[in-house]
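REQUEST
  id: r-88c1
  op: predict_structure
  target: Phosphogluconate dehydrogenase (Decarboxylating) gnd1
  payload:
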Amino acid sequence: MSSTAVADFGLIGLAVMGQNLILNINDHGFKVCAYNRTVSKVDDFLANEAKGTQVIGAHSIEDFVAKLKRPRKIMMLVKAGDAVDKFIETLLPHLEEGDIIIDGGNSHYPDTQRRYEYLTSKKILFVGCGVSGGEEGARYGPSLMPGGNPEAWPHLKPIFQAIAARAPDGAACCDWVGEGGAGHFVYHIFRDGVGFTDDEQGDIFAQWNKGVLDSFLIEISTDILRFKDTDGQPLLEKIRDAAGQ
Ligand code: NBP
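RESPONSE
  id: r-88c1
  status: 200
  body:
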């Protein structure tokens, strides 16, 4: 290990999410190294928001990678799309087998699957991680939904569960969700697999809302599934399955 490898975690992307998540990780006793495409933002961050913390910065990818303890844990919080692929290509020549890349942005799940397969072939552990809670969550406790290469999880668990939000019983709002794009297909399976109507799905969600899954999202899902358009047909079926940012 290089004598300069001092950081527990590396984070690329110093916009609102990245800056706040770094400060959160730092608060929990982990040393973070920060990097950003526009390198001047590293110095600005260290001189302002991160002043007086243990956070360190890097001015090049080589310098950034050299400062990370192995296996390297590198999270990207950059604009979803090309920026993620570009950073993966920039990082790859400097990484070693077993290093971990985490994409914490709002990537489209087929892109995550493609990157997972590509990086598996390069012996790099790739994790796609949903980060929920916006700026405030990133700073004081997000809900984290990591999935991808399960070999990465034991290395990430102590950090991710320390910085995540807490449920009323103290449990961390973060656990491993599975390989690839697990967790996004309940509606698809119910409708196209089992053949449930929207009303039948609404009844299932209503039932779930009376048990341990009782939550705002389960409650509104019940209402959404049961909601009818003016012609009496379920409205949900008429809404295009597309989102942008
Ligand atoms: P943005 O989505 O605004 O992205 C800004 C970052 O992306 C900067 O570090 C910027 O570098 C970098 N970047 C861009 Br823009 N284009 C790039 C390129 N072509 N190559 C390399 N880097 C590039 O930041 P954010 O609002 O902090 O969100 C980060 C991720 O987290 C996004 O995927 C977002 O969808 C997701 N997310 C955001 C929120 C939220 O509440 N904002 C919540 C949950 C998830 P630069 O400084 O050099 O321009």
